[in-house]
Design a protein that fits this description.
alpha+beta, Beta-Lactamase, five-stranded antiparallel beta sheet, two-stranded antiparallel ribbon, 6 helices, 7 strands
């Protein structure tokens, strides 16, 4: 049985490959929704696309039951769609009380400055979807990239746009691989260093300083891999020696 990190990697890799030119996008998206439902523990997940007049042109859902699918559809119609229309909602994580706590999210599918759809999800129980916010945001970015790259009817997508999409897909696929391969050893390093630092009264100053340096470096690695996963534009910056490197600054992050 796949561990959870492997499952997350496979879901995001599937969409990265589709975005870079894979066949049968609808099947890839359906499999990604099914994987997200299982990985996050969702009751239901759905993708909506709409045109410039905000009319829904495509909807696709996966749920554990018809009841879950219906509940999510009602939440989209009664809550998220109205908030987008009247309050310019972009993204949201919400929790509701009751006999069975309910948690939901809506994240945008974005191409440049244009939001052309959303991925939504519903979860029942004590666990909240916010615990998987980075995975869900990476999922929504890859869904957007996949649909934009396969939009054969759009006359606005130039060869430069397509090249950027292919570059971004390659970057994200690399980031997924890095996260998959680095997270387990990095967690072990951080966990052991932090356990040692809990005994700081028994450590001399030089050793404490070295452990704190290791902890800070490990946290920086974690931050870099997470920023790679959140990229939405394949920007580059000059690197000494005349080469270029991916710009992972978050200056353009609006949410």
């Amino acid at each position: 049985m796949q561990d959870k990190n492997s499952q997350k990697y496979q879901i995001l890799r599937l969409l990265a490959v589709a975005a870079a030119g894979g066949e049968d996008l609808d099947q890839a998206v359906q499999l990604a929704l099914a994987g997200a439902v299982q990985y996050v523990g969702l009751t239901a997940a759905a993708v909506y696309l709409w045109d410039d007049d905000n009319r829904v042109t495509l909807s696709m859902a996966h749920a554990e039951s018809d009841r879950g699918k219906k509940h999510l559809a009602e939440m989209e119609e009664d809550l998220f769609a109205k908030l987008r229309q009247h309050k310019q909602l972009i993204s949201a994580y919400m929790s509701f009380g009751g006999q069975i706590p309910t948690h939901s999210f809506s994240l945008p599918l974005r191409h440049g400055d244009r939001v052309f759809g959303a991925v939504t999800g519903l979860q029942e129980g004590e666990k909240t979807v916010v615990a998987e916010d980075e995975f869900l945001e990476a999922l929504s970015a890859l869904l957007a990239l996949s649909y934009a790259a396969h939009d054969k009817d759009s006359s606005e997508i130039s060869s430069r746009d397509l090249l950027d999409k292919e570059r971004l897909a390659a970057i994200i696929e690399t980031a997924v691989t890095v996260n998959h391969e680095v997270n387990n050893p990095l967690t072990a390093i951080l966990g052991n260093v932090q356990l040692l630092l809990l005994k700081r009264d028994d450590l001399d100053d030089e050793l404490k300083q070295k452990l704190e340096t290791i902890e800070a470096s490990a946290m920086k690695i974690k931050d870099v891999t997470q920023r790679l996963m959140r990229l939405t534009t394949p920007r580059t910056v000059e690197y000494p020696g005349g080469t270029k490197m991916v710009d992972i600054s978050e200056e353009e992050k609006s949410e």
